Amino acid sequence: MSSTKPVDNAADAFLNPHDGVAISFWIISIAMIASTFFFFLESATVSRHWQTSLHVGGLVTLVAAVHYMYMREYWVQVHQSPIVYRYVDWTITVPLQMVEFNLILKAAGKPVTPGMFWRLLLGTVAMLAFGYMGETGALEAWIGFIFGMFGWFYILKEIFTGEAGGVAGECSQAVKEAFNNMRFIVTVGWSIYPLGYFFGYLLGTVDQTFLNVLYNVADFINKIAFVLACWSAAKSETK
Predict the structure, then answer these.
(1) Does 132 reside within a domain?
(2) Measured between alpha carbons, how far is 94 from 223 in angstroms, rounded to an integer?
(3) How many helices (H) and strands (E) does the chain have?
(4) Residues 90, 128: contact at Cβ < 8 Å?
(5) 5 is a domain residue
């Protein structure tokens, strides 16, 4: 038998105009859907070797859109952080974003080795796995945080001083700018998540309402703007 208590007011099961978190979930989910349509439609207007990059970008926003719909409903019904949904979303979308670094360099005609992809994937798996285990209690919270940070730093090392960063410096101005913007998002934009883990989960100085709005805004920028950088390079190179 379900232990969920029925709401006294049926309207409480829907979007409350005073619930800023739920509204932010709604806005992001619709923005992700709109972005998906945009990227897939725009893929037909760029050179063939850039189309895969936009297709992968469309998958990033599509997966995020589906998960945001579930996260929105979870928040409306439970009013707690949808931790599992977020990590399932990140487990799919973050590796796809790492693939984008490989794709835009290949589209630009630069030789990149399979090792670059595997190093970025390794950093991603470590970052997300340790973060999830720390936040769900499967691992001591501080240990999960520290090892998760090591995974993120490993990604940053690759895109700044590793093979990816070195090859990007040899690309055209449009590709170089796109790569730098993507790198900026992974550095600055992604910093919001460990900060939320540290101040919200470890120290408990930030409440769930503020934290979820912050994560939602971060995802809006870190996913949509990330793929827009790829789209900008694709359009410039096609011209």
Answers:
(1) yes
(2) 9
(3) 10, 0
(4) yes
(5) no
Q: Tens digit of pLDDT for each residue in 87-137?
A: 999 999 999 999 999 999 888 888 888 899 899 999 999 999 999 999 999
Is 10 inside any structural domain? Answer: no
Per the document, the length of the chain is 239
Range of the domain at 20: 16-238
**What CATH number has the domain bearing residue 191?**
1.20.1070.10
Grouping H, G, I as helix, E, B as strand and the rest as coil, residue 1 is: coil
* Residue matched to tokens 């796109």: 178
Mean pLDDT, the chain, whole residue set = 90
More confident residue, 20 or 68: 68
**Does 7 map to a domain?**
no
Calpha distance 150→123 (Å, rounded): 8
| Domains identified in the chain, total number | 1
| Nearest residue to 217 via CA among 197, 234, 199, 193 | 193
- For the chain, state the CA radius of gyration: 19
**11 exposure class (CB count in 10 Å sphere: 0-12, 13-18, 19+):** exposed
Residue indicated by tokens 């439609």? 41
Global pTM?
A: 0.90
The distance between the two most distant Cα atoms of the chain, rounded to a whole number of Å, is 63
